[in-house]
Amino acid sequence: MLFCPVSQIVRQVRPFILTQRALAQIQWQDVPFSQTVKTTLTEQQKQAFTAQFAGIASPVAAYRIPANQGTLEIEIESPVIDQTLFVPTAVVLDGNFNVAATYPSSSFKLQEEGGLKGNRLSAELNLTPAMNQDYIYLLIYTTQQDLAKTTMMPHPAKVYAKATGRQPPAINDIEVAHSLNGQVQINVSSANGTKFIGLPTEIFSSNKASTPVGKPAASPATAAQNPNAVVTVVDKDTEAYFNQAVTKALKAKDVNKALNLVNEAEKLGLKSPRQIFLKNVNSN
């Protein structure tokens, strides 16, 4: 039996079960590293086998991911398309198709329009495959419960006002219907290749522990270690990196990314990234 950290254990009304017959129906798509793979989903692609655990026949996005690259960072996004939204639930399977971790729709957070990206749901998974596995598998679907809901999106005029430090106008937010139609975008990279070279990776993981795939996790006491540990020594190269990254994000008009960088920098005790952020925003 597989185990995962307490934070990843999900109680479902309907247990997730994949029969051999269901597995035979799934066409797994290979995911190259550091490339965004987009999968279009339509109501016509509904898979009957999902009804037993999703409560409805849902289209699925199914991915096969190499498991020999160490710890993996997997970004999953579902953009708003034509005022509708596919709300994902994600299940990670090990090399033997055993369930290793489940990420319900509540794991996907609303990201406001910024840069070249529109409004979207997004989640980041940190997974560590066990040894002797060639691949792990990621299955994404939606549920009957999520399909019955809607999501409120901020009006673009409000987003722009916030980004430029102005008073948001009194405009109603936009109600977006959930749908069986949509798109899933996935990007897989090796955590060992992260750009934060030489710094403890837990600082930049948004307090998300890496989930072991294919072997038992550490004890709850180990998994509950303080995620807000402070690094007391930060070199000038690190500060220069954050300053440049914040400036670059603002030039790309990606305010959310810039703010995230500022917050991460402040965890390290750096002050100049926020000063750069405020100076750039106030000058526009």
TrEMBL record:
Top-rank taxon: Bacteria
Gene Ontology annotations for the cellular component aspect, listed alphabetically: periplasmic space
Biological-process GO terms, alphabetical: carbohydrate transport
Name of the protein this chain belongs to: MalM protein
